[in-house]
Write a structure and sequence with these properties.
This protein is an alpha+beta fold. The chain contains eight helices and 16 strands. A hairpin with a 6-residue loop joins strand 3 and strand 4. Bound molecules: pyridoxal-5'-phosphate.
């Protein structure tokens, strides 16, 4: 699996199998026509405990079902079935560190572009340590000349594999030009998001988030961090509104938020330093608040932390 070696047991279409067997058929519409949606979920080691818990698993799966709906898939697996498959997979693997789970739902078989099934489900997990240095030093971003795809073309609200071509093009350009990652503007020229994370900006003690109508994925991390900020995250106010490109250059702080990026400071944009070019105090405070949530060190709303039970002795 991209980013590292998967744990030995995977899941494919109703069965727990060796991770190497979790492969999609090349001619399936899920591959050729990108009729495929996915979720990425993190598991964290709880503070002061040996336990691992998955963060906002239920809501990731609800979003996955909504993505399946938008793509017109048949036989959409239920949240309960995918939760059981995910926890079953985790129970069968030697998971005792921070980790990452990828769930892919796709159109298998060898049908045409409008095929709605057969619907397949593939799950793999792997260890995923935190990138402590990146969390501290931050990343430098380029505002891309590629535009964010729009809701009426390939809706970013669905976490569809097809949408990641847009992010890939922007990311390739940013890397070629010496940046870490990209920021995309909407067709209307407003700030949207990064290829795999949402953006938040601090200006004059106000935390500003581009709205969910800015062609973004409706991110659970964004929701978590905004909630942390509203509960006292070092800002006077939290607002969701359209953001102009040049506001990014004037911002005191900018951060990228997502399951993968967690809460990563943006320290430069288009050769401009953000603030003083280092992680700012609000970002730092929100990182602390976020990690307290995901590691169970702060009170979280019901259902946000799903414990993983180790059942290696019962594995098949
Ligand atoms: C395009 C995009 N935006 C935002 C996010 C953040 O979403 P979440 O916080 O739910 O992981 C992701 C995935 O991590 C993404 O791929």
């Amino acid at each position: 699996m991209a980013g590292g070696q998967a744990y030995p047991v995977g899941y494919l279409d109703g069965a727990f199998v060796a991770a190497e067997q979790v492969r999609l058929p090349l001619l399936a519409p899920g591959v050729t026509y990108a009729a495929s949606v996915f979720e990425g979920i993190r598991g964290y080691r709880m503070e002061n405990a040996q336990r691992i818990a998955l963060f906002r698993l239920g809501e990731h799966l609800e979003r996955l079902v909504r993505s399946c709906d938008v793509l017109g898939l048949d036989e959409i697996p239920s949240v309960e079935a995918m939760e059981a498959a995910t926890l079953g997979l985790m129970a069968r693997n030697p998971v005792d560190e921070d980790c990452y789970i990828r769930i892919q739902v796709y159109v298998g078989g060898d049908g045409e572009m409008t095929a709605r099934g057969p619907t397949g489900v593939a799950i793999l997990a792997r260890p995923r340590p935190q990138l402590a240095e990146r969390l501290q030093r931050g990343v430098r971003c380029q505002v891309s000349s590629w535009r964010r795809l729009s809701d009426n073309a390939s809706p970013p609200r669905a976490k569809a594999a097809a949408n990641y071509l847009n992010g890939r093009l922007a990311g390739l350009q940013a890397r070629a030009d010496g940046y870490d990652t990209a920021l995309l503007l909407t067709e209307a020229g407003d700030v949207s998001e990064a290829p795999g994370a949402c953006l938040l900006m601090v200006r004059d003690d106000v935390l500003v988030a581009p709205p969910v109508t800015a062609d973004i994925l409706e991110s659970l991390t964004r929701d978590t961090v905004l909630a942390c900020a509203r509960q006292g995250g070092g800002v006077r106010e939290v607002i969701e509104r359209t953001v102009d490109r040049t506001e990014l250059y004037a911002a005191n702080e900018v951060m990228l938020v997502g399951t993968g990026m967690e809460v990563t400071p943006v320290v430069g944009i288009d050769r401009f330093a953000v603030g003083d070019g280092r992680r700012g105090p609000v970002t730092r405070q929100l990182q602390d608040a976020y990690f307290a949530q995901v590691r169970g060190a702060a009170a979280t709303p019901k259902g946000w932390l799903t414990p993983v039970e180790r059942q290696l002795e019962k594995s098949e």
